[in-house]
Design goal:
459 residues; 4-stranded antiparallel sheet; 21 strands; elongated; disordered N terminus; binds ligand FHN
Length: 459
């Protein structure tokens, strides 16, 4: 059946309503974990949001990747561990955490400009240093640094002003300041002899309760690296979250047991194909979470937009990180890259917010029939030509490598119409058969980064 749509050349995105239900991935996957009704409600905003800002800010931002005149390899927020900096040395960085240029409104505005709907900042990372005035531990910003305001409070307010969901990261197990926390063997000796439960009871769990009591609402709490966490230990944290802020989502790394409301993929590691259930990929803009002066290998707006669309097309959320400096400045390259994504989102955000996984699945790529990987297996070749996201009633095809002719796999419902999001007047021909859909598009790619197409199906 041929659908000829009256329109004039130009345009960016086709919009079409379709009765197509949430599409099945190309390859059947293990079923998504069962969620109770409270979890379904908690997750509503998160499933709509799709795109969030991660912020790693702490004493490591002062070190900025350097210690004793040497550039320390790997990620900036791990400098105390990578350089085995004695605690008595590391804590001196606090005098350099001036936050003299910290502007919560500018940070929240950047998230909004990027099209991000949630923001998650480190309340306490592995170094054990609290970035807020904690009554549980004096090892905190207000007591140890020249900065006497509460950046967490200010950021929470700035987010609320913009309708951005405010979230907090907390490292519940690894703590290089505390002799009973996990990880610091260079000051405190082997982990075997320490009383981890004492650490959890005296510092970690009390601080989690403290931040959930002090800052309201916390829409999601992001736990990390559950070293030494058992079901029982994790359950205490989950119970505390549920009791203090029942609507707060628990992220994927609290520990064993199904306490979390969604799963976390590995860092910078989206799945190769559609993954069932609720999941999120945390990712960096360069190669570090905490600021490093020497890491200037920034992803471009084009790369970041592809990551975003790729992750959403597989069913996930994208939590993209910035690492501010000790003065509280987000590196210019990060700001420019995020704003570039934001320009694309302004035009095409409808194809992302609340969208679900692809209607197809073979577009992601396939194993090479000639090249082998390091283990002698067929090398997986990612195909970056296009991605697809869906909504109950709409499908979006995001074309990164524009062609005036595009062939899509078969779509079972009858195609009844098409429209471009940014310009409802682009000439598109849709020819559908039982074996596939052929699209004839404008010669020139109408949009920057990726131009998006959709197909409308009979209700
Ligand atoms: O060790 C941390 C790391 O510093 C960073 O916070 C990432 C963010 O996902 N989480 C852990 C490594 O996966």
């Amino acid at each position: 059946m041929k659908t000829i749509l009256k329109s004039i050349l130009s345009g960016i995105v086709l919009v079409i309503s379709t009765s197509l239900p949430h599409a099945e991935p190309s390859k059947p996957e293990a079923s998504a974990p069962k969620r109770d009704s409270k979890q379904e409600t908690r997750l509503e905003w998160w499933r709509e949001a799709k795109f969030g800002l991660f912020i790693h800010w702490g004493l490591y931002s002062v070190a900025a990747g350097e210690y004793n005149g040497k550039l320390i390899p790997k990620t900036g927020e791990w400098i105390m561990w990578n350089a085995k900096i004695p605690f008595k040395e590391y804590e001196k960085f606090a005098t350099g955490l001036t936050a003299s240029k910290f502007d919560a409104d500018a940070w929240a505005q950047l998230a909004q400009d990027a099209g991000m709907k949630y923001l998650c900042i480190t309340a306490k990372h592995h170094d054990g240093f609290a970035m807020y005035p904690s009554k549980i531990s004096s090892y905190n910003l207000t007591e140890r640094s020249p900065f006497k305001r509460d950046p967490i409070e200010e950021l929470s307010a700035a987010c609320a002003k913009r309708g951005i969901k405010f979230c907090l990261y907390y490292s519940q197990a690894i703590d290089w300041e505390d002799r009973n926390g996990m990880g610091n063997t260079w000051d405190f000796g082997p982990e075997a002899g320490r009383n981890f439960d004492e650490y959890l009871e005296k510092k970690s769990l009390p601080q989690v309760k403290e931040i959930l009591t002090k800052y309201k609402p916390v829409s999601m709490i992001w736990f990390d690296l559950p070293r030494g966490m058992t079901k029982e230990r994790a359950n205490k944290f989950a119970e505390a979250v549920r009791q203090i802020q029942p609507d707060c989502i628990i992220s994927g790394r609290l520990g064993p047991g199904r306490y979390n409301d969604y799963d976390s993929t590995g860092d910078n590691s989206p799945p190769k194909e559609v993954r069932q259930g609720d999941w999120e990929t945390p990712a960096t803009l360069n190669h570090t979470w905490g600021y490093k002066k020497q890491d200037n290998d920034w992803k471009t707006p084009e790369q970041l937009t592809f990551w975003l669309v790729d992750i959403v097309s597989k069913g996930g959320n994208y939590l993209l990180n910035v690492g501010p400096t000790a003065e509280g400045v987000i590196p210019r390259q990060s700001v420019d890259a995020l704003r570039g994504v934001g320009r694309w989102m302004k035009v095409n955000g409808e194809a992302i917010y609340g969208a679900k996984a692809t209607a197809f699945g073979n577009e992601f790529g396939n194993p090479s029939d000639t090249e082998k990987d390091g283990r002698g297996k067929p090398k997986y070749q990612v195909n970056r030509d296009w991605r697809c996201t869906t909504k109950p009633g709409k499908i979006y095809i995001h074309i990164f490598n524009w062609k005036a002719k595009l062939e899509l796999p078969a779509v079972k419902e009858k195609i009844t119409g098409a429209q471009l999001l940014a310009d409802k007047s682009a000439k598109v021909e849709v020819h559908q058969t039982a074996t596939g859909v052929s699209l004839t598009l404008p010669e020139k790619a109408p949009g920057e980064i990726a131009s998006v197409l959709c197909l409308e199906l009979q209700k």
